[in-house]
Task: inverse folding
């Protein structure tokens, strides 16, 4: 695209017009023969020059506006954004020698998805490296590195990279021997992957309610739902909020139950200073594109047990013996992650703290912007739980949640309602033990996007919508 914006200084006004006509942006960047930036000419400038009597064949010469806004390669997105205005929406980006190397364009009213991957570090470099190594399937150094680095991040000994977060839960259940006739307690407020994985293991899900204050599975409801068939609990750290892991681990210990933490939405959150994922027998993560870090599709099981780690590695790879290739002692799965995905994951992990901080700053901006809106209650914070911001989650207490989502959508801002209560849906309705709070939360909850920080223009758009809804 940059080439379509460029015009050489020794050309004519007609050349500029042709450049502008091709790029459709109303502007051309004029450069000298050495690609050094001279200035800009807009379609309005050309019109004025023609009205002053200049010919289309006139040389560009000194006509470009040299006093225009430019950006330097090392400037941040925010710094560049601040240089834009309604009149100037596109900036040439120059290197230290003053050469034109790129451009920055801010479009108001662009579609803002609810979440977007942040791939600005070494992800592409590592991906190309993995590609060039030709180890593009599920062997390769990035897999091992990603497993090692991510399990360390989770304060766990072992990591088993898999194809997505759903099979991670299934693999955990299979590895722990949870299957037919076993009951698995899960929360009602979660993405369907949690319950589907239980069905995939041929076990019976038992859906229990969440707590109204923290939106996570209610330990008191777990306790009530336990039967002699109960084999495992899957607490879900929903919308970045850690569950009460003290209470859950205590219940599990007393009733001899396995705990599989579903951490798909909570990478890096802590409970009592300890990372989520480090409490359960096995914990699972998702690296889907909308998650805190992504590998496109992808997931990981983490554990502190060498035995469980070894069994997961075997089951992930068709149940193939670790010591005798192509020898199968049991039926397994192909749940492997590719080296290409892991390469992206390694790049993502290098910046996970920065990404978490970025999402947190977006939430802080929402909280500040909507401080005087009395019908929005943002996701709570608790003293012993350091939650993360996955999406910016809140409750809309004036009954206008759906209207708000509609209005945001009309303004190209993608917000989404909380997950539907699992128990309200046909495939799961017979598995409900309790879900009253979940129903209430589901009817009022909203997720605002974390895809882009709140620029002043975006804030104006959102504030105007809230004014309408007051
Ligand atoms: C709570 C929860 N569990 C599990 C998953 C499944 O992850 P994946 O989409 O990678 O299969 C997701 C995400 O989609 C999720 O939000």
Result:
């Amino acid at each position: 695209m940059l080439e379509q914006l460029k015009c050489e200084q020794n050309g004519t006004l007609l050349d500029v017009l042709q450049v502008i006509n091709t790029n459709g942006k109303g502007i051309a960047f004029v450069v000298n023969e050495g690609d050094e930036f001279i200035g800009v000419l807009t379609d309005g400038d050309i019109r004025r020059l023609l009205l002053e009597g200049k010919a289309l064949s006139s040389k560009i010469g000194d006509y470009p506006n040299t006093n225009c806004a430019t950006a330097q390669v090392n400037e941040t997105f925010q710094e560049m954004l601040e240089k834009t205005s309604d009149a100037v929406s596109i900036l040439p980006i120059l290197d230290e020698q003053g050469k034109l190397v790129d451009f920055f364009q801010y479009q108001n009213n662009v579609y803002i998805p609810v979440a977007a991957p942040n791939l600005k570090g070494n992800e592409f470099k590592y991906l190309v490296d993995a590609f060039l190594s030709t180890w593009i399937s599920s062997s390769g150094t990035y897999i091992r590195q990603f497993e090692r680095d991510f399990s360390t991040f989770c304060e766990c000994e072992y990591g088993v990279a898999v194809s997505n977060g759903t099979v991670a839960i299934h693999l955990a259940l299979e590895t722990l021997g949870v299957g037919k006739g076993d009951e698995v307690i899960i929360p009602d407020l979660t993405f369907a992957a949690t319950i589907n994985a239980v069905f995939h293991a041929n076990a019976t899900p038992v859906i229990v309610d969440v707590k109204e204050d923290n939106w996570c599975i209610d330990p008191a409801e777990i306790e009530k739902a336990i039967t002699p068939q109960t084999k495992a609990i899957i607490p879900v750290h929903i919308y970045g909020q850690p569950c009460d892991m003290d209470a859950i681990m205590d219940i599990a210990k007393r009733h001899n139950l396995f705990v599989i933490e579903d951490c798909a939405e909570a990478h890096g959150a802590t409970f009592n200073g300890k990372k989520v994922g480090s409490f359960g027998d096995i914990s699972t993560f998702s690296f889907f594109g909308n998650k805190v870090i992504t590998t496109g599709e992808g997931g990981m099981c983490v554990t502190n047990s060498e035995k469980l780690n070894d069994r997961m590695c075997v089951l992930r790879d068709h149940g193939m013996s670790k010591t005798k290739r192509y020898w199968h002692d049991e039926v397994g799965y192909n749940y492997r992650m590719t080296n290409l995905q892991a390469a992206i994951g390694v790049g993502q992990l290098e910046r996970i703290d920065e990404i978490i901080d970025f999402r947190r700053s977006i939430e802080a901006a929402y909280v500040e912007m909507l401080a005087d809106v009395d019908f929005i209650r943002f996701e709570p914070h608790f003293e012993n739980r350091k939650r993360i911001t996955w999406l910016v989650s809140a409750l809309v207490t004036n009954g206008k949640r759906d209207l708000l989502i509609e209005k945001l959508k009309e303004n190209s801002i993608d917000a989404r309602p909380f997950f539907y209560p699992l128990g309200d849906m046909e495939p799961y309705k017979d598995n409900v033990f309790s879900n009253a709070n979940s129903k209430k939360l589901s009817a009022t909850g909203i997720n605002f996007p974390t895809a882009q920080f709140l620029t002043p223009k975006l804030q104006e758009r959102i504030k105007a919508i809230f004014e309408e809804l007051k």
In short: Residues 2-105 form a domain with the CBS-domain fold (CATH 3.10.580.10). The first strand starts at residue 6 and ends at 8.
